[in-house]
Amino acid sequence: MFSKILIANRGEIAARIMRTCMSLGVRTVGIYSDADAKALHVQLADEAYWVGGSRVAESYLNMERIIEIAKQTGAEAIHPGYGLLSENAAFAKRCEAEGIVFIGPASGVIAQMGSKIESRKAMEAAGVPVVPGIAHPLSDVEEAVEVADRFGYPVMLKASAGGGGIGMQVVRDEAELRKAYAGNQKRAADFFGDGAMYLEKFIENPHHIEIQVLADSFGNTLFLWERECSIQRRHQKVVEEAPSPFLNSELRIKMGQTAVQAARSIGYRNAGTIEFLVDDQHNFYFLEMNTRLQVEHPVTEEITGLDLVEWQLRIANGERLPFRQEEVSLDGHAIEVRIYAEDPKTFFPSPGTVQKLVFPEGPGVRNETGVNEQSVVTPFYDPMIAKLVVKGSDRQDAVKRLQAALDTYQVEGIKTNLPMLRDVAQHPVFQAGHTTTDFVAKYLQGKS
Amino acid sequence: MSQIAASMAGNVWKVLVNPGDQVEVEQDVVILESMKMEIPIASEFSGTVKEVKVNEGDFVNEGDILVELE
To answer: Which end is more exposed in chain A, N or C (fewer Cβ atoms within 10 Å of the end residue's Cβ)?
Structure first.
């Protein structure tokens, strides 16, 4: 095993990775920005170094400085966590060139899966179903109309340069498409300086279900079941669970095998996730592959009994997976909710100082956090401050534990989405396990 | 004279108007970026832009004046 690694991240995930390192006897090097000088992950690291100013471009994305710290401290590997540099192929390549182990797949695979177009091509070639779409930007509105007729309405119009929802619109007929095309293209051109538009078939009220895969360097690729992540706001996940209440065992195995086939076809190594959209007819379509650890990885850990960070380290260190697919257990039911520093109604961020913080406790309750009392939540980073994970013997049991845990969860000083999470946990549609991606808009918006 | 202020702390991601521009009610004048979210700031007034008080990349606190109209 490595004797020392650098964790190129912050917040709850840096803390989470450090905990596994501690249990494995691996020493940790933390990094921090101006705004994070007193952050929890800095306190937990065996040694921690300043990387730059508060903005991520000056600190957590400062590749050269991070590599320099790794070399100076003698860190043998870098764990990128999620977000930040985790899916940056150039960074992985720099690590490879410097002889520092990047805990993740090869840089070429990150680049391939990071491109919407390349990843689609690779998946189609591997026989993985993809959402019907186009490979080149639309040349004009007439082409958009023609393509939409071919796919059938509704279709989703997307700005190539968009990310946070700007330039994305679902349209249901030709008149709507013509109007949306003009408007969204102008917005995309104004906001991003790039008016290139794409169009794809819109899957109505899908389930967002993703498969966790784990692959070593010896050709062993396994699936660790699925996670249901349909409850989202602003296209970001809020509640995740495993297993999915929507899948039957036949579809579960089929999706798992498809994910393994996809990962194998691109020579994937380490932990990765293949995201699918699943329609009400149980058709599933490749959405994207995340070539890193996911925020919601704890629910998989709870039902399989595996520590995913530990296996990431072991695989990166050249170890072989010692268990087979049939030996991957699926025990009980786990649910994770993300605690965001945000207004529960508008979802607008709410920076500030955490005055009071009381975590729920009890059997089957796990807290992952990047903050403690008196932590300052700054505007510079992601609004997620903590995760609550519960495990039960079955889904009903897990939901009960979630409700009880959320009731005792207390955060004061900043606004959080806790009221919204309590509404989700109490909602009959959630309790019945019938949530699709329109859940928040359909049942909770304008509430709380 | 009317002032358009930041509704929360964050970075100025985009300035969408220039001095002399005509602005309508509910028109976005600035996009802030806070906690990875893009937050368009719309004008509550109509008028002509007198002065843009911020530059792209600036950090602003809640209540800071972004744009002045006349």
So the answer is: N
The answer on A418 and A402 residing in a single domain is yes
DSSP alpha helix (H) spans, A99-164: 107-114, 116-125, 141-151
Whether residue A126 is contained in a domain is answered as: no
CA gap A447, A427 in Å, rounded:
12
- Number of structural domains (chain A) is 3
The CA distance from A324 to the nearest CA of chain B, in Å, is: 40
Fill in the amino acid letter for A390.
V
Residue that is last in its domain, among A155, A173, A201: A201
Strands (E), A35-95: 47-52, 77-79
CA distance A40 to A33: 13
Residue A160, pLDDT score: 76
Mutate which of B13, B31, B37 to test chain A, going by most A C-beta atoms within 10 A?
A: B37
Q: In this structure, which amino acid lies at residue A366?
A: R
Helix axes A249-265, A116-125, angle to 10 degrees: 110
Q: In DSSP terms, which residues pair with A71 in a beta bridge?
A: none
Q: Which CATH number fits domain B2-56: 3.20.20.210, 3.20.20.100, 3.90.1300.10, 2.40.50.100?
A: 2.40.50.100
pLDDT above 90 covers a percentage of chain B that reads 73
A232 and A197 within one domain: no
Q: Do A379 and B11 touch (CB under 8 A)?
A: yes
Domain interval for residue A45: 4-103
How far, in Å, CA of A74 to CA of B29, rounded? Answer: 49
Same domain flag for A282 and A400: yes
* Regions of chain A where pLDDT drops below 50: 448
The pLDDT tens digits for B15-66 are 999 999 999 999 999 999 888 788 889 999 999 999 999 999 999 988 899 9
Same domain? For A320 and A247 the reply is: yes
Q: Which of B28, B32, B35, B41 has the highest number of chain A CBs within 10 A, making it the mutation to test binding with A? A: B35
User: ipTM score here?
Assistant: 0.70
A249-277 per-position pLDDT tens digit: 999 999 999 999 999 999 999 999 999 99
pLDDT value for A448: 41
User: Is the domain of A313 the same as that of A431?
Assistant: yes
Contacts of A187 in chain B (CB under 8 A): none
pTM for the complete prediction? Answer: 0.88
CB atoms within 10 A of CB B15: 18
